[in-house]
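Quick one:
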Amino acid sequence: MGWLSWGVFVVLACLIAAITNGFLAPLKVHFRADLQKLPKADPQPVDAPFVGLALSGGGARAAIFAAAGMQALHERGLLAAVTHVSSVSGGGFAASYLALHPVPDGDAARYFDKMQAVLAHDYFWATQAQQLRKPPRLFSPSRRLESLKEALERPDFLDQARFDALPGDRTFYFNAVSYDTGRRFVFSNKVLPPPDDAHEQTLPPALRALSFCDANGLRATPHTFPISLAVATSAAFPPYLGPMTIEVDTGGIAKEYWHLGDGGVVENTGIETLREAVYGCKSAQPATIYAFDAGQKLDSDLSKNTHDISIWSRDVTRLVDVVNEYATAHRLTMFDALDEKTGTKIELVTFDYMEVVRLAQSPNPPDPRWLSWTGWNHATPQDRLASKTPADHLAKIPTALKITPCNQELISAAAAFLVEQRFPR
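Output:
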């Protein structure tokens, strides 16, 4: 058999494997849930003031931005007061690390250095390594999600931890989206109020989060649910990853199948889930939400000066950005109206890493460091050639499951800079 024949054979074999394991193979069932065996605890009122922490999506960029932001809050004594943490996609990497590895009383700097080192690990190639160990996964996004889950189960990260390992002194929300309904789906270590609760009805039904629901309407994530699966699902951006499939036993004859994916498809900041929690906590005290937003917004000036934006190749996420931009404008209008109607007081403090770029481009930039590559330890000659200034480079950091040392340094500095601007020491 000649080389050409061998080439044709290999191509045909790969095509058959792709069709068999990717396009025609049924979706993997990642978890089986019995709704009659959910945690039975009643939702607990919050005695302390509501302080939320929202950690957005954005891959490794978001994970590092969240970690550096939490460090800056900790250094100002603000992180300890946080009662609720809501995360999406990459932000869930940082949230889950905080949940399973609490900040120690001493040597916090070393703790956050280790957190960043764990979060900066190359989870893209770690996922590929899991794929290669089990070749039938190669052409199946549903099975590829399992590989990401396993990559997150490093001994120094999520290991084999389940939801019953999450601390009880803080509420954690990991946000996904239901591909069956188009609504938020939330994994949480606390029982959420039933949807027919009077306070819960502040939000229209279409904007309330879904979760596992028992016969009494209480929404609770099973104690045996893997934390790594919740984090991976929240980051499962299509078509590369997912969907995650849950086989649900409702007590009836037929089973249901729920299909979930990246929460950033509908709401990338995590703020909406915290707002729902504020409305349902039955507290008259003002609430505070610190939001670290590492999502890349639409840049109309850049777009209008670019001939080819390649919607169906490298800029495919722009479609999600367009939908989110439109939906966010409507949500903000609605939330303002709801707050006024209900008398709810929420102080939203947002740290948007793209604000560093805007400030650097302003007539009076507050920090000249963002205009010169001098003093940046991890910038390579290629980085300096690719971007005129560190601020320019900051705007180009891609959404991925890995990050370069230069980009990590820039993102960390951006978080510290923004918190310092808001809370100077």
